[in-house]
Structure formats: C-alpha cells, structure tokens
Design goal:
Radius of gyration: 54 Å
CATH architecture of the largest domain: 2-Layer Sandwich
Number of helices: 12
Strand order of the largest sheet: 6-15-19-17-16-20
Largest sheet: 6 strands, antiparallel, barrel
Distance between the termini: 57 Å
CATH topology of the largest domain: Beta-Lactamase
CATH superfamily of the largest domain: GAF domain
Length: about 500
Amino acid sequence: MVQTASATRPQFRPGLARIADGPVPDPAAHAASGATPHAAAAADSAAAAFASAQLIRIEGDLRRCATRDALWHHLANEPVVLLPFGQAVVFEAHRAGSAVRPRWWPASRRPFDDRSWKAVAISALTRVNRDAPMVRWYENIVRTLWSLGEAERGMQAFELPALADPEDPCTTDAALRHLLWVPLSDAGQPVKGGWLLARSAPWEDAHHKLAARLAAAYAHGLSAIEGRAKPPPAWRRHQSKLALAAVAVAAALVFVRVPLTTLAPVEVTPQDPFVVAAPVAGVVERILVAPGAQVRVDEALVQLVDTSLRSDFEVADQKLEVARAKTLRLQQASVEDATAKRELAIAQTEQSVAVAEREYARAMLDKSVIRARQGGVALYGDPRDWAGRPVAVGEAIMRVADPAHVEFQIKVPVADAVNLHEGARVKVFLDASPLEPVEANVLRAAYKAEADAAGVASYTVTARLANPDAPAERLGLRGTARVYGEPVSLLYYLLRRPITAVRQWTGI
C-alpha cells in the first residue's frame, strides 16, 4: 500500500487533544473558566462551523479517491479531525470460510459464522501486517460481531472484553477498550466493509451520528468506484423452491407414461378397388365415363383405337368362310372321288384353325372396349389427358371403387417413424372437417420405406375406421393423421428429436 498524504496529519492519541488545523473550541472549558453565556454560545457556534467545514472537506477529498486502497487509507486517517479515536481499522468482507468455533465461544449461542474479514487499512500505518497479533485480534473481534448478527443491522458500541477472547494478551493489555463498529453499506446494498474505531473513553451519541454520516459517504464512494450491485433476480431469491420444483418436474417426466405419437399426411382411399388396366397395347380413343361417375357392372369405361383389331377380325372371318366353302366342296366330291375323300380331312382341319383365328380376333376386338367388373365410382384424372395417349399392356387407366368402403393411407416419414403394431390407434384430422377428428386403427404398415414424388422416404401405413358403422368419408380427401405408438416416458417424448439429432451428429 502507498501512504497517502493524509497519513502525515496528526492523529488523536490517548492523552493528546490537538489537530492539524488548530484546537477545537471546547464549550465546557469556556464555562469552567467563568465565561459569559454569550461567549459560550459563540464557542459552540465556532465548534459547529469548524466541524461542518471539516466534514465538507473530507467528503470532497474522498471523491478524488480513484482506487479502493486510496479510499480505505482516507477513511482510516482523515476522519480523526471529527471523531476523537485513538485507532481506526478498515475491514473488507470476503466469502465465508470454514465454520470453526473458537474455544471461548459459548456452546449455547447460535452457530459460529466464520466469515472472512480482512483488515486493509490502519490509521497512521502505510501498510497492514496481517501476521501481527493485534491485527489478528481485531479481525477475530469483527468476525465474532458478524456471527452475532449485530454487524449487518447497524452500528454497535461495546467495551472490552466483550466479543473478544478474554484470555488473549491483546484483550488484557489493550489501552483503548471502548470500540465502535460502523458497517459500510450504501442505500440498501450488501455490507462490503466495516470501520472499527477504538478509544479509551466511552462513545457518545454525537459520535454515533457523525460516524454514521461518514460511513454513508465512504460507502457511496466505494459504490462509485466499483459500481452498485444489482439486486438479485427473483429466481435467485427462490433457488431452493425452484430446485424442488425442478426435481418434481423431472420425476414427473421420468415416471409419467405417454404414448409416442407422430403426425403424417393422410388420404382417404378405397378398399380393394378394381383397377382398370389396358388388356392390350394400343391407343386410348376416349374415356366413356366422367370422373367420379357411378358405374354399373359390365358398363363400358374405356374405348381403345380398334382399327387394326377390327381388320384382323374381318380377315379371320373371311378365311373361315373360305375354309367352310372348301370343306363343303370336298364333302360333295368325296362320294365319287377317293382323292377328294382324302383331302376332306385336311380341309376340315383348316376350317378348325380358321374358326380359332376368328375367335381370337373377336376376343381381341372385344378387348378394345374395357368394361367394369364391379360397380362403384370411377376414379381418374382429366379425360382430356387420356385421349390419344398410347398405353402398354397392364398400364392402369382408372380405378372403380365402392364409396361406402374406404380406408386411410398414411405416409409416415422415416425421421418421424414410431414402432407400430396392428390395431394401433389413429386419429385423422381431415382438411374438410378439422374440428371433427375420425378414429381409426392401423390395419398394416409397410416394412420398407419408399421415396415419394418429393423425394421424401416414407412408410405407407393403412388404417380403417374404428367403427365400421360410421359414415364413410369422401374418397380423395386429405388431411393429417396422428399415429399413436408404444407408451414411453414423458422425458423421452420431449427429448426424442434432440436425442436423435445428437446421435446422428456425434455417432454415439
């Protein structure tokens, strides 16, 4: 520590009564010397003016202290012009240490609070030797005072051996036995330091008021140097309650079981529809029914271009007529001609081949018109998209389905897949009626994911109405389905996605 200029100022000591700026007018001395009341009043006024001037000077000087050390040295030395102390010690409060109760501490008192109080400045000294017995003795007194709870409440005046070890030599040999403890706290801020004053005579009420005024000024100066401590947030004041609440919430998250659910797009599709496919390779001439029209069994649905097939049928029919004529001629000639009789068998065989060719051509011509094998609703897109379109054998053109028997086709993305079993619960929210969810059950789920048109790999899950008697939804409606999987803990339900992401990123 660097000695301040104020350290050279003469201090009060036992047996001394002078200050650097001249003697303080003493009203009692004037009265004892037989002075008139007017002279005594003048002396009182002079003393008050002197004290006010010194107080103003001290408060002005402490504002020029730029560091803590300078402020503490100023506090330890300068106020002696106003407070007649024999020795002043400035302390800083540090974090609590180990609660070791001194041997002289009564067992009936409250638990000993071993807060660390460090002496940082002593009057008339440039530095503090913390190994000195007197310094340790002062620190123990302040620590004991703090443990009693008196230090934080306000100023305390006491006389030795109170709050000190009676067996300590410093206690028995102390000449300054009247102590005054002044905590340093600024406008409700926590106590960061303290000021301990010692003198041989008891402290008066006027000293208490003046010490409190000076302590407030120096505490404000410390706040100006370090900055005011902000009040702790509300959650810090209730840390224990918040901790208990967090434990209760964690227990609830671990032990509460909820079904693992996922959301996926859904579409209303028919059950076991009849797929209208091209029986032969050809070109679609026209669609004979409108989209969504009701069709009956054996009703014509699609007309293919049949020019080639009709020509083949007519050629096969003419070949059959030729074969019949030849067979008839040989039958007539075989009565008299043995050669004709032998050729008759060949002609009959050729006629049979012609019949088969004509029947085949008739069958192919009949396939140019595709008919419905079951009644229902025709499901396909725009008819204009099919006109003149070539189709291969087996290519689907439309579907015919019964609107009274529907099911739900759900596309569950791989990233949101859950373990499903047959009969699992499904709640369907259709876009046409989002406020009226439909209950369904899983019928089957694909074991392999397939990419859709957008490139998203998804599992196809099929579900049917839980209530078979419920009215069927309109085919083609879309919406969102919530699929319920196996029950899991609520904690896993909330952290499933973060856990999956962490495992994907880290490979753990």
